[in-house]
Amino acid sequence: MHQPLPLPAAELRAAVAQRYGRVATCPETPAGFPVGRAFAEAVGYPAELLDTLPAAASASFAGVAALPRWLALAAGMTVVDLGCGAGLDTLIAARQVGPAGRVIGIDASTDMAQLARRNAEAVAATNVTILTAPVEETPLEDGLADAIIANGIVNLSPEKERLVGEIARLLKPGGALTAAEIVLREEIPLSERATLEDWFR
User: Fold this and answer.
1) Which residues of 109-129 are buried (b: 16+ CB within 10 A; e: fewer)?
2) Is 163 a domain residue?
3) DSSP code of residue 31
4) Angle value at C-alpha 185, between 40 and 106, nearest 5 degrees
5) What is the domain range of residue 56?
6) In this predicted model, what pLDDT tens digit does every residue of 180-189 receive, in sequence order?
7) What is the DSSP-derived secondary structure letter of residue 181?
8) Are 130 and 107 in contact (CB under 8 A)?
9) Is residue 45 within 8 Å of 86, Cβ to Cβ?
């Protein structure tokens, strides 16, 4: 059996944006992967912390870990949240960097980005900016970020080498990437590797 041809990057990116856009607008609809507040608590977000943030931020949570537990952010830092989703990690980071810092969330889904903006507005997070863009090609300047966070976005990128290059471009010298990802425990059959559904397990 020959290996299936990979799907075009543009097709994969559009499918990811569409699927996660549906999570933003209809989080109660099954997505094929875990979503929501119960899942956020299951991976380690404290309930008392979630209670202080907009309910929509955790209702549409679709990361893979409680990433803020591993963050070492300080007041005044500039943070980029790649694949920010509904903005849960973005808002937590915004509190940590304070009014002298800033957090820029990037998401390829227009619906997710709009939801993240609404969530930031709901808590008057004036140090937050949300942009709609591919994570592999953001409109941000070189060496902007003291820290980059990425919660379950690398597996969704159809161009992982470009994404790694973009992270390197955005980080200041000495800046830090904190990322969480899913891990395969068994080989995926070749027949499934070139299907859209394989991207949403």
Assistant:
1) bebbbbbbbbbbeebebebbb
2) yes
3) -
4) 45
5) 9-200
6) 998 878 887 7
7) -
8) yes
9) no
Q: What are the pLDDT digits (tens) for 77-96?
A: 999 999 999 999 999 999 99
Number of domains the chain contains: 1
pTM, rounded to two decimals: 0.92
Residue 155 near residue 179, CB atoms below 8 Å: no
- 106 vs 135: CA distance, rounded Å: 7
Q: Which ranges of the chain does DSSP label H, i.e. alpha helix?
A: 9-25, 37-42, 47-50, 55-59, 88-97, 110-122, 160-170
Calpha distance 86→119 (Å, rounded):
7
Query: What single-letter amino acid sits at 39?
Result: F
Which CATH number fits the domain that encloses residue 80? 3.40.50.150
Q: Is residue 1 in some structural domain?
A: no
- 116: enclosing H helix or E strand: helix 110-122
DSSP letter for each residue of 131-175: EE--TTS-SPPTT-EEEEEEES-GGG-S-HHHHHHHHHHHEEEEE
- Residue 4 is assigned to a structural domain of this protein: no
Residue 3 in domain: no
From the CB of residue 107, how many other CB atoms can be counted at a distance below 10 Å?
30
